[in-house]
């Protein structure tokens, strides 16, 4: 089956064509992403109204380009998938309404995709891995550890109780004047820094469970920066390196606890697999840290290519193909959702607010 995917949940306007064979093999025929980074850079973060208007302006052209690059026409499609949440609701509306229009005009099945499920299933697109596997989902809006048991079947082990990891990176970059997007800026500055200069806290490390917290780390870094002001370039590099080192220690501690929970809830006689997905999974230091952890814990680590870690439509098309293969489609009256947890049965984490 050949699926058109549309992604507009944040500040990337994206469309892709993905083909799934009967035996579950995948082929990306096109994957077009238009970034809005320049539109939001002056504000130090994504402005929802600007993002939604940009999606309206560009999405039709991006869809046409995806079809052109794939070398196919509307008649070659077997379905259209679009992010229906979670995300910035204005952007989600644009993408979902476009997909509904395409489905109606061309008499195609509509698949409304959870953006987080797109990230969760990307490793099956790139590596054709089997269920179940452990997932570390780290993005601008979410930081979670889950067991991926099947399409639409997830068990959450841990979540952030305050900031998401990508959010913490962005706020740190803004505090230090590094610009937007924050994650790559902090990572670049950390290359020349001393990760041991500042003894920043590691919130939640050593505690029971698998939940995360990053607000205290961010506050400690702000206080350290204020004490050093005016900051020299070396100070900024050392702060970034120390921040990144603290993040890696937190991820190791929380993920190790999730590995134990995963092993306790599944038959692990075969190879245990862990997947890291989401935009922050593109961070080189984090990828290296996870690789070392998995080697010591006897887990195979799968990390999608960098271009498929950040928001893209290929993952949405693939999630749509996986759902369509199971006969899972949606009616044209389905509503967009600003919040949409992968594990709706999971108990709300204290203080987590909407980041579930």
Can you offer a commentary on this structure?
The protein has 356 residues and is an alpha/beta fold. The chain folds into two domains: 2-124 and 307-325, 2-Layer Sandwich (Nucleotidyltransferase, domain 5), CATH 3.30.420; 131-305, Nucleotidyltransferase, domain 5 (2-Layer Sandwich). The chain is built from eleven helices and ten strands. The strands form two sheets. A five-stranded mixed sheet has the order 3-2-1-4-5, sandwiched between helices. Helix 5 (165-175) crosses helix 6, helix 5 packs parallel to helix 7 and helix 8 (233-265) packs parallel to helix 9. The model has no long low-confidence stretch (mean pLDDT 94).
Write the layout of secondary structure elements.
Blueprint: E1 2-7, E2 12-20, E3 26-35, H1 37-41, H2 48-70, E4 79-85, H3 89-106, E5 110-114, H4 115-127, E6 133-138, E7 143-150, E8 153-159, H5 165-175, H6 182-190, H7 215-228, H8 233-265, E9 272-277, H9 284-297, E10 299-302, H10 306-309, H11 314-325
Parallel strand pairs: 1-4, 4-5, 6-9, 9-10
Antiparallel strand pairs: 1-2, 2-3, 6-7, 7-8
Helix pairs in contact: 2-3, 4-11, 5-6, 5-7, 6-8, 7-8, 8-9
Provide a short characterization of the protein structure.
The chain is α/β, with parallel strands linked by helices and 356 residues long. It has helices spanning 37-41, 48-70, 89-106, 115-127, 165-175, 182-190, 215-228, 233-265, 284-297, 306-309, 314-325; strands at 2-7, 12-20, 26-35, 79-85, 110-114, 133-138, 143-150, 153-159, 272-277, 299-302.
């Amino acid at each position: 089956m050949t699926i058109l995917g549309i992604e507009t949940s944040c500040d990337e306007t994206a469309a892709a064509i993905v083909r799934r064979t009967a035996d579950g093999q995948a082929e990306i025929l096109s994957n077009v992403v238009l970034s809005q980074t320049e539109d939001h850079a002056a504000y130090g973060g994504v402005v929802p109204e600007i993002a939604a208007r940009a999606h309206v302006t560009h999405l039709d052209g991006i869809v046409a380009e995806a079809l052109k690059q794939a070398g196919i026409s509307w008649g070659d499609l077997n379905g259209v998938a679009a992010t229906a949440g979670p995300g910035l609701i204005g952007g989600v509306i644009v993408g979902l309404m476009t997909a509904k229009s395409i489905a109606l005009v061309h008499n195609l099945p509509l698949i409304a995709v959870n953006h987080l499920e797109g990230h969760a299933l990307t490793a099956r697109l790139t590596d054709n891995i089997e269920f179940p596997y452990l997932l570390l989902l780290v993005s601008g809006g979410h930081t979670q550890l889950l067991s991926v048991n099947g399409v639409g079947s997830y068990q959450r082990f841990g979540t952030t109780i305050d900031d998401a990891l990508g959010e913490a990176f962005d706020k740190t970059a803004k505090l230090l004047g590094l610009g937007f997007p924050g994650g790559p800026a902090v990572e670049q500055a950390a290359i020349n820094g001393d990760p041991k200069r500042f003894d920043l806290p590691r919130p939640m490390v050593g505690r029971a469970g698998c939940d995360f917290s990053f607000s205290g780390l961010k506050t400690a870094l702000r206080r350290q920066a204020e004490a050093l002001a005016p900051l020299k370039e070396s100070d900024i590099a050392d702060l970034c390196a120390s921040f990144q080192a603290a993040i890696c220690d937190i991820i190791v501690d929380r993920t190790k606890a999730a590995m134990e929970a995963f092993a306790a809830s599944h038959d692990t006689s075969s190879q245990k697999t862990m997947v890291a997905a989401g935009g922050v999974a593109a961070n080189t230091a984090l990828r290296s840290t996870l690789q070392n952890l998995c080697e010591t814990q006897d887990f195979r680590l799968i990390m999608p290519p960098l271009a498929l870690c950040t928001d893209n439509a290929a993952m949405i098309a693939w999630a749509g193909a996986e759902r369509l293969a199971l006969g899972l489609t949606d009616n044209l009256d389905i509503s967009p959702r600003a919040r949409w947890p992968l594990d709706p049965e999971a108990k709300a984490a204290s203080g987590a607010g909407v980041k579930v």
